[in-house]
Amino acid sequence: MRISVKRTGGFAGLTRRWSVEVGGDELERDWREVIEACPWEAVPAQENQPDRFIYDIQAGERQATLPERELTGPWLRLVDMARRAAGQQSG
Amino acid sequence: MHCSIVPPYLLRRIARLERDSLQPAAEAARRALLRTAGLNRTRQAKVRQLSAVLPAPSVLHPGPEPARGPEAWAELAPDRQINDAQHGERLPGKRVRSEGRPPVADPVVNEAYDGLGSTFELFARVYGRNSLDDAGEVLRATVHYGQDYDNAFWNGTRMVFGDGDGQILKGFTGSLSVIGHELTHGVVQYTANFAYQGQSGALNESMADVFAVLVEQYALRQTAAEASWLIGEGLFTDQVSGVALRSLKEPGTAYDDDVLGKDPQPGSMAGYVQTSDDNGGVHLNSGIPNRAFALLALRLGGYAWERAGLIWYDALTGPDVGAQTDFAGFVRATESAAVKRYGRDSEEYAALAAAWAAVGLMD
Ligand SMILES: [Zn+2]
């Protein structure tokens, strides 16, 4: 499964991407629980604060766009895991 | 944005009708009303008084210089509070410096304190504006936010600065234009309150950039021709090929780096970016009104905060703009501001029309 995070906005307006391909065993062992814990269908529509980031998060077929303020709990864990894993895979 | 839910026009109306019966109102509503009432009472009179008499700018370095300027604005003084998040994400963080206190050991705290002062100076001495709300609101900043946090933002009541990631971006208090930018988001919140999405969001961004460069130019007493017109100069680390984050004069030219790519800002409507990223490209399409302002100021010459800045300030704080104003609506607001202040046959109005035409926003 491909898990990817695109971060846009921010004062600098620089887009950052982190993406990782996760195989079956690893998916079940490390990722499934946090992916299921994210409320994919219940993302609040909220106006963003000026210059805060926006996160576009994808796990397989599922997708959600969150303002930075909503990046808490399982969302934050998922993004942190993706960033760390992407860092390891690319270098 | 943490703004008033009641639209400004409604607040203004209530303020007019009920200024004498505010006591029972809820505290939040009362504050919002007083801000607006303060705006109504003082702004028009103050800006009308603005004439050729411009004070020498003073950057508020440790031990602020006595304020000089038109009599009516001399009493305006900032009230600053700097807090330290100590690399956490809880706001506001620990208070580390308050108004009138001497510099502390941490240079980041002092940069924020001085930058708030320079921003207050521009709005107070040039436009007669008493802080963000024109009613003397405390200027609040939190530094050292988060771990390797490569951003600065406005949360509705305070500016928040990260220290950068050290790889691409350095600490955000290092550029006065960043501080001016974030505080101007506060001014916008109390005035036009442009919704942070699409074209109105790009206008919100553009106001923040325009007054940010004016804060710098005023502090350095630079003419339009002398100024860099850059936002975030010196924020990139040595590993990045770029001079700054944005250029108002030449959008799209601030950086060109093999990792970050090229500065994606358009400088005219021909390059307008349709995207769902970044609240609809608010940091991209802001390049279009940014360049119109720079062109106007360069065409008029002299100090950009004078004639060009006044037209922009009048438009931003005037009756013709609101949360859903788009580019065309802002063009009309600047036109009516220029006509009111200088007349339809004026050099200023002609230069304004030429500037909007150059970015593709004039029929
Ligand atoms: Zn901004």
TrEMBL record, chain A:
Pfam families: Emfourin (PF20242). The lineage of its organism: Bacteria, Bacillati, Actinomycetota, Actinomycetes, Micrococcales. This is Metalloprotease. InterPro entries: Emfourin. It comes from Arthrobacter mobilis.
TrEMBL record, chain B:
Its cofactor is Zn(2+). Gene3D superfamilies: 3.10.170.10, Neutral Protease Domain 2 (1.10.390.10). One of its GO terms (biological process) is proteolysis. One of its GO terms (cellular component) is extracellular region. Residues 80-100 have a biased composition (Basic and acidic residues). Residues 192-360 form the Peptidase M4 C-terminal domain. SUPFAM superfamilies: Metalloproteases ('zincins'), catalytic domain (SSF55486). The keyword ATP-binding does not apply. Pfam families: Peptidase_M4, Peptidase_M4_C. It is found in: Secreted. The active site is at residues 182, 283. CDD domains: M4_TLP (cd09597). Residues 112-189 form the Peptidase M4 domain. Keywords: Hydrolase, Metal-binding, Metalloprotease, Protease, Secreted, Zinc. GO terms for molecular function: metal ion binding; metalloendopeptidase activity. Residues 80-106 are annotated as: Disordered. Its EC number is 3.4.24.-. PANTHER family: NEUTRAL METALLOPROTEINASE, PTHR43579. Belongs to the peptidase M4 family. Extracellular zinc metalloprotease. This is Neutral metalloproteinase.
